[in-house]
Amino acid sequence: MQTRNFKILVAAICIGLTAVWLTAYNIVRLGIDPIGYIQQNTSGSFSDEESEDLKTILTIKGKVKEDLRLSLSDLKSDKYKQVTDDFDFKNSYGTEWTAEYTGTTLWSILEAEGILESDDLTFIFIGQDGYESPVALSIEDIAKKHENKVILAYELEGQPLSDDNGPVRSIIDREVIQYLEPNHYNSQFAVKSLKYVEIK
């Protein structure tokens, strides 16, 4: 009985070694990179572009129940209201122009996430370079009342924002800002490479 079991064990070992040898032979013959193959098939099958879409690009912080970190994929989600529209601009030199932007309304994010500590709050935009929009705006009177005119844009004229301006930019239409004091222009609130929306 022991002899029979020993023979079975030897046979199993031989079969296993043969399988290993054949696998190694085929890897060499076909030029397969086993490490690269494993990494490719255990990384969630995300392309570089898809991985970029999942990185945090924007944080809503300040007087909120907890910081909200958003990726580009989050911003494009059906969870929030998406808007494509023409926005009018004017800068301090008096130059006026119109451009089509696509993005998510700020109010739809705040409403869907329920992170505001109270109703009587304001917000400012802060870029990656540290630039801040010049004055805090009322969430109730600006972001909510003019929801479709206050967006976090990720496309300009149907194309992703350039590296210099994106991946997301705050956009407020001129008609909303005209109600503020005269020295403020809506171009000042178009913060490129937006990093934070700070609630105050």
Describe the structure.
- The chain is α+β, with helices and mostly antiparallel strands.
- It has two domains: 2-42; 48-199, Oxidoreductase, molybdopterin-binding domain (Sulfite Oxidase, Chain A, domain 2).
- It has seven helices and ten strands.
- It has a five-stranded mixed sheet with strand order 2-1-10-5-6. Strands 3, 4, 7, 8 and 9 form a five-stranded antiparallel sheet that branches.
- β3 and β4 form a beta hairpin.
- The longest helix is centred in the first third of the chain and has 29 residues, at 2-30.
- It starts with a helix and ends with a strand.
- Residues 37-46 have low confidence and may be disordered.
Tag the structure with descriptive keywords.
200 residues, alpha+beta, Sulfite Oxidase, Chain A, domain 2, 2 domains, 5-stranded antiparallel sheet, globular
In short, what is this structure?
This protein is of the alpha+beta class. It has 7 helices and 10 strands.
Computed CA radius of gyration, to the nearest angstrom:
27 Å
CATH superfamily of the largest domain: Oxidoreductase, molybdopterin-binding domain
Distance between the termini: 82 Å
Low-confidence residue ranges? 37-46
Q: Assign the CATH architecture of the largest domain.
A: Alpha-Beta Complex
